[in-house]
Amino acid sequence: MTATTPLGLSDLRSFLRGLPGVDKVGVESRAAALATRSVKASAKATAIDLAIRMVDLTTLEGADTPGKVRALCAKGMRPDPADPGCPPVAAICVYPAMVPVAAAALAGSGVRLASVATAFPSGQAPLEVKLADTRAAVAAGADEIDMVISRGAFLAGDYDRVFAEIVAVKEACGGAHLKVILETGELATYDNVRRASWLAMLAGADFIKTSTGKVAVNATLPITLVMLEAVRDFRERYGRQVGVKPAGGIRTTKDAIKYLVVINETAGDDWLDPDWFRFGASSLLNDLLMQRTKLTTGHYAGPDYFTLD
Amino acid sequence: MFEYAPAPESRSVVEIAPSYGLFIDGEFTSPAEGGTFKTVNPASEEVLAEVASAGSDDVDRAVAAARRAFGPWSALPGAERAKYLFRIARIIQERSRELAVLESLDNGKPIKESRDVDLPLVAAHFFYYAGWADKLAYAGFGPDPRPLGVAGQVIPWNFPLLMLAWKVAPALATGNTVVLKPAETTPLSALFFADVCRQADLPPGVVNIVTGAGDTGAYLVQHPDVNKVAFTGSTEVGRQIARSVAGTGKRLTLELGGKAANIVFDDAPIDQAVEGIVTGIFFNQGHVCCAGSRLLVQESVAEELLSSLKRRMATLRVGDPLDKNTDVGAINSAVQLARITELSEIGAAEGAERWSPACDLPDRGFWFAPTIFTGVTQAHRIAREEIFGPVLSVLTFRTPAEAVEKANNTPYGLSAGIWTEKGSRILAVADKLRAGVVWANTFNKFDPASPFGGYKESGYGREGGRHGLEAYLA
To answer: Which domains does chain B show, CATH number per domain?
Structure first.
């Protein structure tokens, strides 16, 4: 099968192979340099509130129960019960089975509901199963679907299959936003990250997302930098903006601010918005809240002053 | 736009005395004739300190002190000399915050560069050459290489402390003693280093520091009791020095100007190449002898690359050197600013297209916005003369052979850069470039183990690495 996109692309393979390479040493040193930016005082306060608004507060465990999910939703809607000025998170992210519970809990709050689907996290299931998974999540009330690509197919060079799956899932999403998880830790090279990013965008992804959080290497700053370059270049070429979501391993305010700096100096202003950038995280939120309180009160409060997820 | 709040490094971490004498024979002394000059902060034009100007009598005293110290110092076992160098290296690390702030104040370079590049490299040079001090017999210069005697060293203002380290560390490791003249506009870190020498209990006279302008440097290099002259600076002054030491039997190394070609092929990793171009020319305000001041880009990707470069340049933060988020600091002096301004005006007058991102420059101090000239040809003066500022000349080429030809078509030959994902092309092109350093898919990377030096008018001799020992051994 030859992939034909709405953009008139007829040979996906040669297109992806023709993208400029990524120099590993160079991209890592650029990310390290941006990580030394000093964000203090008012800039830090702005950054923390923006980061909170960008969190996809996530629970993806076999042990998830309706009670756990309801607690998470409550936390997402009011992260700091003591401070009504604290913004809510962007979304709650759960497994499809938990979508009905979360949908009920979040109704009318403005916090969006995201669900992983497509045989998350491995993606190793027949396409029909993946599509059914997606439709069920959307039907139960998910606003956003986080799908995984078939890394096996991608690494085997079967780009057409990966492309076709994304197109099919996108169709199954209907009005729901589609985030495409590249699982960059399994793609291993930056060249692959860039190719997979373009592949997902060409196939119609609304967001590209680094990781499931279930493998050894999850989001890193240089990988996110490469993906931000990809969405920037894609918009320049095709006029469509695509969001970016690093997920897994971002636990501290300091880390989150480094990502905001990378957005600021790579893709730019337009991506500094929860509509276009998200953090897939769970423990990050409490650190953001802790730093937020520190900035307002001047001292650190212990962990018991912040609510459990 | 996500605006970063000001994040200034504290200037109170370092103490600057109102005035400084000459460091001779382990003591700060007044100059015989009593002249002084002022050193200013180029970012604000504020006077930082008054510094003694050494006359010929002072240089005599300094050379005599170095001569007296030479005997015992060169007789020490290498392992003992190494202990002093290791101690100096550790003190520099311990006091690196003070030194970084001082360097940024006196030179105008951003604190993130003095903190993350200059100071770590300075310490690394002392550590590296400390390691050689007891292994000189195995360095490949014969079984019992001997030091030369007194080294007269004259260094520039672009990397004041790093150039001092490049000069002093190998000289001391090999058993020579030193009289060093820092640049007129940036003497403070060298004077601080004098204090580091005392803190390390370095025997008096092993390192002497004489401050002053060109005359002081001339007395030093022409002094009859100096055995070795090492100079880093402009080609013009290098020529005068070469003339003055000709026939005297003094050994000479010169590290002079450059007009490096940074060559970007169509198969380059574009985003990283853009970073490399920015690092190549805007690092240290372009006050870098090996700066990639000529961008040679393959015509087939020129438009794409230039639009990426301009977008990237628009994010450069120009301003207060002590702000931790500043990327481009102040031009070192009014004289240098005038030269950059003049050559840029010539570039525009000769028909090249000038472009700078919008940036607010401070009212006081010496500033020049990052600038690129497109449509430059080999015939433009800005493609031939060293500007030594944040000004990039962009030329295009069609084939690898043409790239090599244009890259080599310069009186200089200090450094060059190659950007391509094709390994065989890197090797083939590097082999044909007449430049002392060729970087592949990176730029302005330094390491004490790597020799550095030029072809043609970029000078002779090598500094750094095992090769750097040779200049100080007989």
So the answer is: 13-256+456-470 (3.40.605.10), 261-440 (3.40.309.10)
